[in-house]
Each structure stands twice: as structure tokens, then as C-alpha cells.
Write a structure and sequence with these properties.
Low-confidence stretches: 256-262, 266-280
CATH superfamily: P-loop containing nucleotide triphosphate hydrolases
CATH topology: Rossmann fold
Protein name: P-loop NTPase
Largest sheet: 8 strands, mixed
Helix content: 25-40%
Structural class: alpha/beta
Number of domains: 1
GO cellular component, one term: cytosol
Number of helices: 12
Keywords: ATP-binding, Nucleotide-binding
Strand order of the largest sheet: 3-4-2-5-1-6-7-8
Pfam families: ParA (PF10609)
Number of strands: 8
Shape: globular
Strand content: 15-25%
CATH class: Alpha Beta
GO molecular function: ATP binding; ATP hydrolysis activity
Radius of gyration: 17 Å
CATH architecture: 3-Layer(aba) Sandwich
Length: 280
């Protein structure tokens, strides 16, 4: 039997809006592509997608068309910076409002048709802990939680981690501190989050790195471009590149969850062992 192609699936999430999660998802995808990875970026904020706006893209087809049965996943792929493939949404679409778990399963199961052409799938979830966030996140191999060094961000990140751990037994989380003024501040934000989870021996939180507050990010946002594309030597881009290199060295999962079809299986069955501790 032919061996299935393993795909690294990263869910980028956060407890609240304003942490820079979508900016991270876009630029991380581009950085991974620059390292030679074949990357697909899914805008998982189904009701209020923003990646199209951040990159000044007007896609001909979106997830709404997929849900309505008007196109295949391959037909809605949009080529973005550095050759990444984008799967975009439609803001304020009635079709995407109030989708059920079965719809989330259908969206992700459709990735089977492009599985062999993808090395990394980056899922930019919505903020908070709604059903789409929980479904996409618990189906991923690696959960990256984005925080800022402010109480609301840290408390909401803790609430999200608690929900994913308590309801779905996800035990391993990677944490990135964003919009920091120094590496020390990034570590400090992580330490605050770690302190909130210290009594839970069932959790493993690992610090990935920090991304600095950088005017280059604001400039890129106003230009509706990716900062890694137009300011590759900025402080933000250099730190992001280091994080991307670290992520590219994470081991691929060789269990069934190393294949795209793992999405449907895990969403339907939600096995209790998902997210068990691993090193790295």
C-alpha cells in the first residue's frame, strides 16, 4: 500500500482579538514557504475572515462557494505571496454564519484532494473559544497560542487552553509572545500564562519565541502587504524567520493524524489520547 503523505497542521489561535494572530499566520506561512515548504493558509475565522483584507485580495471563490457546493477546494485556492496557497472566506456571509460541526468537518475533509501537494497547513482560527475555534484547533497537530503582555490577553489565552484541555484533552500547547519590546518581556508574558496553569500537571506549555513591536508591521498593514515580503530584514521579520526555522524542524506526525484525513476522524471520534505530551 502506498504510504500517505504526512502534512504538518498548525492551528494559530488566541484567547482574544488584537494579538496579531492573523498577521503572524500570514507571515509565518510566507516564511515557511521561503524555507521550501509547500504551504496552504486557511482563514478559519469563518464568520469574519480578514486575510483577504490584510493582503488586498479579492478572491473569485471562497469557502462560501465550497459550502454551497459550487466549487471544489482546488478551485478556490488563491496563490498568495511567495507561492503560498490561500483559502479565503467571505465577510458577513449568511452561508458561513452559524455553521455546525458537520460543516467544519466537511471543510477540512475536503483537504484530501490536495493532500499530496501540501507540506504545511496553517489554520488561522477566530479568536476566543467558539465551535469553529475548538473544532479546528483540536484537529491540528500543533496548537500555537498567541499572547500579548497584557492581562486580558493572558487571561483569555488561559481560558482557551483550559477549555481545550478540559473538553478535548489537548495537553500540549506552543506559545508565541507578540508585540513585545524585548525578549525579556516576551518571556515574562509566557511566565504569567505558565503561572496560571501551574496547578494542572496535565498541561505542557512550551515557549516558541517572541515577536517585537515593529513599525514595519504597521507600515505593511497600511499597505495591505505582508511585512515579511516587503520588509524582510525588519526586526519582526528576523524574529519570525527564526521561529519559522524552529517550526520547520518539528517532527512530523506519522500516526493517522499525520494525514489530512485525520481531521474528520478526530472531529468525529475525539479520542482521549489526542495531544499527549511529546518533546520539542
Amino acid at each position: 500500500m502506498k504510504k500517505k503523505h504526512s502534512v504538518q497542521v498548525l492551528a494559530i489561535t488566541g484567547g482574544k482579538g488584537g494579538t496579531g494572530k492573523s498577521t503572524l499566520a500570514i507571515n509565518l506561512s510566507i516564511a515557511l514557504a521561503t524555507l521550501g515548504q509547500r504551504v496552504v493558509l486557511l482563514d478559519g475565522n469563518l464568520e469574519l475572515p480578514c486575510i483577504d483584507t490584510l493582503l488586498n485580495i479579492r478572491p473569485q471563490r471562497t469557502l462560501s462557494n465550497l459550502i454551497e457546493g459550487n466549487c471544489t477546494l482546488t478551485e478556490l485556492l488563491h496563490t498568495g505571496p511567495r507561492g503560498i496557497n490561500l483559502i479565503l472566506g467571505t465577510p458577513y456571509s449568511k452561508t458561513m454564519h452559524g455553521l455546525l460541526t458537520a460543516h467544519h468537518v466537511g471543510i477540512i475533509n475536503s483537504f484530501n484532494e490536495i493532500q499530496t501537494a501540501v507540506d504545511v497547513l496553517v489554520v488561522d482560527t477566530a479568536s476566543g473559544a467558539n465551535d469553529s475555534v475548538l473544532n479546528f484547533t483540536r484537529a491540528a497537530h500543533e496548537v500555537l497560542v498567541v499572547i500579548c503582555n497584557e492581562p486580558a490577553s493572558i487571561l483569555n489565552a488561559h481560558a482557551l487552553i483550559y477549555t481545550l484541555n478540559n473538553q478535548y484533552k489537548i495537553r500540549k500547547f506552543r506559545v508565541i509572545s507578540n508585540r513585545t519590546y524585548s525578549p525579556v518581556e516576551g518571556r515574562d508574558a509566557f511566565s504569567k500564562l505558565l503561572a496560571l496553569t501551574s496547578c494542572n500537571v496535565d498541561l505542557s506549555l512550551m515557549y516558541v519565541g517572541n515577536l517585537p513591536e515593529d513599525l514595519a508591521v504597521r507600515y505593511a498593514t497600511h499597505k495591505r502587504r505582508a511585512v515579511y515580503e516587503i520588509s524582510p530584514r525588519s526586526k519582526f521579520s528576523r524574529e519570525l524567520e527564526a521561529i519559522a526555522k524552529k517550526i520547520s524542524r518539528w517532527p512530523l506526525h506519522t500516526t493517522p493524524r499525520g494525514h489530512i484525513e485525520f481531521f474528520m476522524d478526530s472531529l468525529i471520534m475525539a479520542p482521549p489520547g489526542h495531544g499527549t505530551k511529546t518533546s520539542g
